[in-house]
Amino acid sequence: MAKTSQLARLAKKERLVKKYAAKRAALKLSGDSEGLQKLPRNSSPVRLKNRCTVTGRSRGYMRVFGLSRIQFREMAREGKIPGVKKASW
After folding, report:
1. pLDDT of residue 88
2. Residue 86 class from Cβ within 10 Å (0-12 exposed, 13-18 middle, 19+ buried)?
3. Fewer CB within 10 Å, N or C, the chain?
4. What is the DSSP string of the chain?
5. What percentage of the chain carries pLDDT values higher than 70?
6. CA pair distance 78, 19, nearest whole angstrom
7. Does 39 lie in the same domain as 2?
8. pTM, two decimal places
9. How far apart are CA 40 and CA 20, in angstroms?
10. Strands 67-68 and 61-62
11. Does residue 89 belong to any structural domain of this protein?
């Protein structure tokens, strides 16, 4: 499990990205680079980090499922992910 401070920081960044998305898009469309620079740094979507929804782990993230490789393996073995089964041939 990731530190709760890291998860809280990520949640704060997500709120900022959502809050400034429309304003950022308008400034980009008009080509106002000075206006973009005045926005908070953490309002940029580039600064978001993909993390596992269960554990908060950042490495080994599988974008399609929103899980880390470890949680994916455990949940797939238990049959908790629809459409995923152990390969055998």
Report:
1. 85
2. exposed
3. C
4. ---HHHHHHHHHHHHHHHHHHHHHHHHHHHT-HHHHHHS-GGGSGGG-----TTT---TTEETTTTEEHHHHHHHHHTT-STT------
5. 100
6. 38
7. yes
8. 0.78
9. 9
10. antiparallel
11. no
Confirm whether 88 is domain-assigned.
Answer: no
Read off the pLDDT of residues 30-56 as tens digits, 9 standing for 90 and up. Answer: 999 999 999 999 999 999 999 999 999
- Surface-to-core class of residue 56, CB atoms within 10 Å of its CB (0-12 exposed, 13-18 middle, 19+ buried): middle
Residue 60 has a CB neighbour count (10 Å cut-off) of 13
Give the domain extent around 39. 1-48
CB atoms within 10 A of CB 17: 18
